[in-house]
Design goal:
Strand content: 5-15%
Radius of gyration: 21 Å
Number of domains: 2
CATH topology of the largest domain: D-Maltodextrin-Binding Protein, domain 2
Distance between the termini: 26 Å
Shape: globular
CATH architecture of the largest domain: 3-Layer(aba) Sandwich
Low-confidence stretches: 1-22, 30-44
CATH class of the largest domain: Alpha Beta
Oligomer: single chain
Mean pLDDT: 90
Number of strands: 15
Number of helices: 19
Helix content: 25-40%
CATH superfamily of the largest domain: Periplasmic binding protein-like II
Structural class: alpha+beta
Length: about 450
């Protein structure tokens, strides 16, 4: 899942979609034909499932946000058309920065795409307001078997015991490394099992030696999924508790995970927050001005197409108190308001199947979620062993979400920069953030 395409400026965890955010719950509830429904109530034909007849004529829209995946998506659709030539699918790509704002408007007027990408932070909000259709019928019919996918990702798209989507992919986080910069700085390459201290020292050494050339050792930033969520987990902390009712930011271990990024910036090992606001970490890396980039498996597509590709390798994240990475996956969901439910569900089932997922993996677009189809991704980038991202599943932790993740994601965006740039003590910011986050969670 790629949560966002490489190069998308992050003001965030807008994460994963600050969704047009804070007023979204109110905007969705009570509007449109499905307003105010409970999860599962808008299932309609989703309560039963039968594959579309091969001669069905239908026009579908498929909404997504990542242009770099369109080639693989269209390859899937070409295979689908061999069986269903009468089902025409228009792929609508909306830049990530605008995707959730647009979707909010569409949801309010019941004009969402027939099939669309959904992510963890926004899923519960759309499911709770009856805007997406459950996959209950397809599961009951055996057309989709949840056991074929990682359990943590099935859970991510389940609300009150009802599952609404199957992840089309998953992603974990590693450290992308520009070996040419290490050579230029005369610094040894990182190895598996390296520690936080190793990382901090390496970043500072490279920055000290090459800063006159505008090159840094590493980079922080406001993308929780690729940065501070991981270090919070590695320190033994949590972003939110297991049942989604309380913040973990004021946990002392969580504060250590935030302090990691303050130290990196304070040491000069990373560009400062203003620089990172102007140019996100991934763009520092693909432009050859960053030695180490904490990035997701989804970064493979754009890095492979950049001039730095010839110098790149990838290593596991450094180890804190424990080894950990966030895992997430994007899911295909059907709009409850779709007038072409059977065709949309048939496409949803096809895209969730082994054939389509294997094709995605073979093309290196993403790590497909279907068990047994991932290995091709590991060797999809010439000269780079991407198995780091597959191995990380064994120590991965679920992406933190609640019913209105966007609301507290906005707090992270507005408050954490003060901790990272040293304007306020990390403990003070973390405590204030936890207090405000708990107030929001109490309203869910």
């Amino acid at each position: 899942m790629s949560t966002r395409p490489l190069g998308q400026p992050v003001t965030r965890r807008h994460v994963l979609g600050l969704a047009a955010s804070i007023g979204l719950a109110g905007a969705l509830s009570g509007c449109g034909s499905n307003g105010g429904s409970t999860p599962g109530a808008s299932s309609g034909s989703a309560s039963t499932y039968a594959a579309a007849p091969t001669d069905l004529q239908a026009q579908l829209t498929y909404g997504l946000w990542d242009q770099t995946q369109v080639k693989a998506v269209k390859a899937n659709l070409a295979e689908f058309a061999k069986t269903y030539p009468g089902i025409k699918v228009a792929v609508n790509v909306t830049p990530y920065a605008d995707y959730w704002t647009k979707l909010q408007t569409q949801a309010s007027s019941d004009t969402m795409p027939d099939l669309l990408w959904m992510n963890g932070p926004n899923f519960q909000l759309y499911a709770a307001n009856g805007k997406i259709a459950p996959i209950t019928g397809a599961v009951s019919a055996g057309a989709i078997k949840p056991a074929d996918y990682p359990a943590a990702l099935n859970d991510l798209y389940t609300l009150d015991g009802v599952q609404y989507g199957v992840p089309k992919d998953f992603d974990t986080i590693g450290v992308w490394v520009n070996q040419a910069i290490f050579s230029q700085a005369g610094v040894a390459l990182p190895k598996a099992g390296w520690t936080w201290d190793d990382f901090q020292t390496t970043a500072s050494q490279i920055s000290d030696k090459l800063k006159s050339k505008g090159i840094y050792g590493a980079a922080g930033g406001m993308d929780g999924q690729t940065t501070y969520y991981n270090t919070i987990l590695q320190a033994g902390g949590e972003v939110i508790n297991a049942d989604g009712t309380a913040s973990g930011f004021d946990n002392p271990a969580s504060e250590q995970g935030l302090e990691f990024w303050h130290q990196l910036i304070a040491s000069g090992g990373s560009p400062n927050m203003k620089q990172l606001t102007d140019t996100p970490a991934d763009q520092w890396f693909v432009s050859g001005r960053l030695a180490m980039y904490w990035g997701g498996s989804w970064a493979r597509t754009e890095i492979a197409d950049a001039p730095v590709a010839k110098d790149v390798t990838v290593v596991p994240l450094p180890v804190g108190t424990q080894q950990a990475t966030v895992i997430h996956g994007v899911s295909n969901v059907v709009a409850a308001s779709s007038k072409n439910q059977q065709a949309a569900q048939t496409l949803q089932v096809f895209l969730a199947g082994k054939e389509a997922q294997q094709q995605q993996g073979d093309m290196g677009a993403v790590i497909p979620a279907f068990t047994g189809t991932q290995q091709a991704f590991a060797s999809s980038m010439k000269g780079v062993d991407l198995s780091v991202f597959l191995d990380a599943v064994s120590y991965a932790k679920p992406f933190p979400v609640s019913k209105n993740s966007a609301a507290w994601n906005a707090l992270e965006t507005s408050m954490l920069p003060d901790a990272f740039d040293g304007s306020k003590p990390v403990a003070e910011v973390a405590g204030d953030l936890a207090t405000k986050m708990n107030a929001l969670l109490a309203k869910e």
